[in-house]
Each structure stands twice: as C-alpha cells, then as structure tokens.
Design brief:
The longest helix is centred in the middle third of the chain and has 17 residues. The chain has one domain. The protein has a four-stranded antiparallel beta sheet, with no helix packed on it. A two-stranded antiparallel ribbon has the order 1-5. The chain is globular, with a radius of gyration of 16 Å. Helix 2 packs across helix 3. It is an alpha+beta fold. The mean pLDDT is about 75.
C-alpha cells in the first residue's frame, strides 16, 4: 500500500501509534525528542512547543487528535486537522508512526486543559541527520 493510499483510508482506519519496534523518544525540558533506531536519525518538535508532536496522543484517530488540539487552542478544527494530516504524513514517511487499529481513548486522557494564553502554532517535525554516521559507528548497531 502506498503512502497516498494509507492517507486516503477511512476515518475509522486512520489511527496512528508510535512505531515501537524502531522508535524511542522522551520529552526533556518541554522538547519532544525522538530517535529512529533503524536509521539513526533523531527528531525534535522544537524547544518549548509542548504537545507539538502529538506523540502523547498517538493511538487516537487523527480526527480525535485534531478535535482535542482545536479545543485546547480554540482554533478552527479544519485548520488544525490540515496541520495534523500534514504532520501525520511526515511521521509516516519517516517511519516514526504506523497505522493501528482504532482504540477508544480513556476518559482521563481524551481532553487537554486550555493552552493558558499560549498561541497555536502548527506542529512541526525537525529532523537531525548529522548524527547518522556517528551513531552507525556504534558496534551494537551492527548486531542486527
């Protein structure tokens, strides 16, 4: 299935989750950091852009992520949805997320508090390919 076909899947099927077989990540001082262990490329959502990668919302339908963020930032859902679709396509292309079966979110995690004056900014994914060669020198990466 091509990326375009995956993106055109029905709403029910368009759920993303972290590609746990190849990806690890952590939020440090408000910056989301992700490492693709298969490619040795690391990614960031930029310092201070909490929630920008929606990594804490993977496993949700894409439409639900857009609804949650639109409510948090009081933005038009269509605008946020376009941004989330763009980010989702980028995350898929980089192998950081995969499609997953739809699961019902728990009530405690289905909403986010208001953004408290922080303006909405489209989520971004910054790729850092400069460490790729250095990480490839690690003998542990050759064991596979």
């Amino acid at each position: 299935m091509t990326l375009r076909e995956k993106l055109m899947m029905s709403e029910q099927d368009r759920t993303l989750r972290v590609n746990t077989a190849e990806v690890t990540g952590k939020v440090i001082d408000g910056e989301g950091l992700i490492i693709n262990l298969a490619t040795s490329i690391y990614y960031s959502n930029g310092r201070g852009r909490r929630g920008g990668l929606v990594a804490d919302r993977t496993g949700y339908p894409v439409a639900k992520i857009a609804t949650i963020l639109a409510g948090r930032y009081q933005k038009a859902e269509e605008e946020v949805r376009a941004d989330i679709d763009r980010l989702g396509a980028e995350l898929l292309r980089e192998g950081l997320v995969v499609h997953a079966p739809v699961k019902a979110p728990s009530e405690s995690s289905a909403t986010l508090p208001p953004a408290a004056g922080r303006p909405y900014a489209p989520p971004q994914l910054l790729a850092y390919r400069d460490m790729q060669d250095l990480l490839a020198l690690d003998p542990r990466s050759r064991d596979s």
